Structures are given as C-alpha cells and as structure tokens.
Amino acid sequence: MMNMGGPSTIPEVHDFLSRLFHDRDLIPLPFQRFLAPVIAKRRTPKIEAQYTAIGGGSPILSWTRKQGAEMCALLDELNPASAPHKPYVAFRYASPLTETCLNEMRADGVKRAVAFSQYPQYSCSTTGSSLNELWKVSNDQGGWGGNGEVEWSVLDRWPTHPGLVDAFAHNIRSVLAQYPPEKRNQVVILFSAHSLPLEIVNRGDPYTAEVAATVFSVMTKLGFSNPWRLTWQSQVGPRAWQGPQTSDSIQGFAKLGQKDICLVPIAFTSDHIETLYELDIEVKEEAEKAGVHLTRAESLNDNPIFVRALADVVSTHLNAYADGSIGPTSKQIGLRCPGCTNPKCGRTKEWLARGGKPVTA
Ligand SMILES: C=CC1=C(C)c2cc3[nH]c(cc4nc(cc5[nH]c(cc1n2)c(C)c5CCC(=O)O)C(CCC(=O)O)=C4C)c(C)c3C=C
Ligand code: FES
Ligand SMILES: [Fe+2]
C-alpha cells in the first residue's frame, strides 16, 4: 500500500518535510541538495503547529493499517486461491519507508506482490514518485526485490472504481441528509483536490483529468442532484498552480449569494492535515466570515463501503492477472507524459512491465 505518508508524531515532522523537499519527482528545485534542507527547516515550526492542532500527528498510518487489515481479511474470502494476503505499507516521506517495507517482505519470504497505489488518481508527482522509489530501493546495490526475487504487478490507478464512487456518494448523501428538505438539493457540492503546479499539468500529467473523472462518476451516481464544482487546494510556493483555488471559490460563491456549500475531499482517501487543518479550521473560518454555512463530507477512512472497494480493486486485478487477461501493469502506465524529461520514469516503467524482473540477455 503505497502513499506519501505523514508524520505520526511531532518530532517526525522535520524529517517528513526534508524527504518531501528532496524529492525531485515532486518538487524539482535549483540546487536541490542545498535548498531542500533550508526550506524544510524553515517550514518545520509552521507545519508542527498544524499537526499539533489536529491532535499531534497525521492519522494516515493508523488508517492505512486498518484499511489493509480489513481489506486482506475480505481478500482471503474472495480469493482463497491466493490466500493468505498480507498488507505492507510503503510511505514515500514518513515511516514506514519503502526500505522498511521491503525488509519486512524479505523477512516474510514474499514471492508475489501487488504494488497498490493508495492515490486513486495517478500523478507522476505522487504515484510516479512512489514507483520510482520502489525501483530505486529494490534495485540499488544490496537492494532486494527488484531482480526477480518478487513477481510484481501494479495497481496504479482506480479513479472510477464503482466501490470508490459509491463510498464518496454515501458520505455526501449523509451530509446532505442533515439539511432541511427544501434546501437539500440547492447546496453546492464543492469537490476539492490537492492542486498541481501548472508545469506538471502542462507536461501532460494525467492527474487533473482523472480527478475530474472521479468527480463526474460521483455526480452521475448522485443523479446530478445538486449543483457542483471541482476546485483545487493546498498550493505552496510562488509558482502558478491549477485553479480555481478552493478558498477563493468559497469567497466567490459567497459574493454571488450562494451560502450553502458542502466540501468533499476527492483525491485523498484518509484524513490528513489538508482536511483536518486546512479545510476544517482555515477554510471554515474564512467561510464563516463571508457568511457561508460550510459542511464537509467525511474522508473515506475505514468506511466499510470503501474497504470493500479496496478488496474488490485487488481481487479483480489478481483474477485478471492470473487468467492472463492483463499483464503486470495497466496499458496507461506505459505511456510517458508527452513532456517527460525524467529518465527515472522510463526506467521504472520498463522494469514494472517486466513484472519486476531484470533484463535478460
Ligand atoms: C493527491 C494528493 C496530492 C498531490 C497531487 C500532491 C502534490 C503536491 N504536493 C506538494 C507539496 C506539499 N505537499 C504537502 C503535504 C501533503 N500533500 C498531500 C497530497 C498531495 N500532494 C497530502 C495529503 C499532504 C499532507 C500529509 C498528511 O498530513 O498526511 C507538503 C507538506 C506540508 C506543507 O509544507 O504545506 C508540501 C510542501 C507539491 C509541490 C505537489 C505537486 C507537485
Ligand atoms: S513525468 Fe510523467 S512520465 Fe515522466
Ligand atoms: Fe502535497
């Protein structure tokens, strides 16, 4: 289960930010090795305060472990032929890192594994970075797992999986049910996803289109019961990012007289500072000042519909792989972005297409 991860405790915040700012797949900086530590150090107090405000750390590891355990219990029933199934967590910027994950798999003698991205929508800056890291750690000198020790397949995206869409629709309906019937279908459903720098969007990154696909599937499931928009949050730094921004959009709607808004975080499946701090504290305060009554759909976390969806995504993949109707990767992952200049992408994708085996002469 691959994801970015988050600091479970306050003392882990600095190392989390340091790894994040060192990642050239996420943020290519000039003089990265010198600038990354400086920016990470400067940003640490602010981010520590945010994690303190949400209870002293990111809940992502505990949610991921719970999701993994429940998903595998379901998988043992659904796919007895490949049982027992066991979840391993590989975070990009926080513990447990890819290295720890592979060491655990090695100790357990794992021979078959699915690299399962926990980002439903694919971006080269998120899932792509995690896969590049998997290549690096498993292929580096002394690394394990990248030379045929493990038969790998990849679940790189699942933006419109019916179970995922159902889980989002269920959480939205639960919030709408709290409104009086005469207001219920007037509430604006405001889907909010983490933004991307426009350089990445314009390189041809699939993320914005896949997020829009999730949103459209959820609205289809809801029978287009309400007006809706997709907006983008959490931009950092001076570069241009995909807009419109979530907070600006709420202010814009307020000016237009639209004062009932229900926020839906659509590109991350567990709670994290961007829901618990940015949306629930910062954005909510600004909205209230503008006279907007803001509600939020719960994150998917351990929603049973969502956990069943995770099991179904994997089960369907295992069956299709076993009967030969799919290979180790999706067709889509083989196609690099038209503007890609990152040699790591090519190397990782070729290795994954071989199911994690070395090149044979
Ligand atoms: C699908 C989700 C995410 C995308 C896409 C994404 C892209 C992206 N992020 C940054 C920079 C930062 N992100 C930070 C934290 C953070 N990012 C996401 C998700 C996505 N990011 C999450 C869930 C979190 C919080 C982790 C948690 O609490 O569990 C941070 C650190 C916080 C801060 O300093 O503000 C930075 C920096 C870029 C540049 C980027 C696209 C290239
Ligand atoms: S940046 Fe998208 S494939 Fe390299
Ligand atoms: Fe981010």
Automatic annotation (TrEMBL):
CDD domains registered for this protein in UniProt: Ferrochelatase_C, Ferrochelatase_N
Example GO molecular function: ferrochelatase activity
Chief location: mitochondrion
Alphabetical UniProt keywords: Heme biosynthesis, Iron, Lyase, Membrane, Mitochondrion, Mitochondrion inner membrane, Porphyrin biosynthesis, Transit peptide
InterPro entries: Ferrochelatase, Ferrochelatase_AS, Ferrochelatase_C, Ferrochelatase_N
Pfam families listed in its UniProt record: Ferrochelatase
Topology with respect to the bilayer: Peripheral membrane protein
EC number, UniProt record: 4.98.1.1
GO CC terms, sorted: mitochondrial inner membrane
Catalytic function, reaction form: heme b + 2 H(+) = protoporphyrin IX + Fe(2+)
Keyword Iron belongs to the record: yes
Subcellular location: Mitochondrion inner membrane
Pathway involvement of the protein, from the record: Porphyrin-containing compound metabolism; protoheme biosynthesis; protoheme from protoporphyrin-IX: step 1/1
Top-rank EC class of the record's enzyme: lyase
Transit peptide listed as a keyword: yes
GO biological process: heme biosynthetic process
Signal sequence annotation: none
Purpose of the protein: Catalyzes the ferrous insertion into protoporphyrin IX.
PANTHER family hit by this protein: FERROCHELATASE (PTHR11108), FERROCHELATASE, MITOCHONDRIAL (PTHR11108:SF1)
Family recorded in the similarity comment: Belongs to the ferrochelatase family.
Protein name as annotated: Ferrochelatase
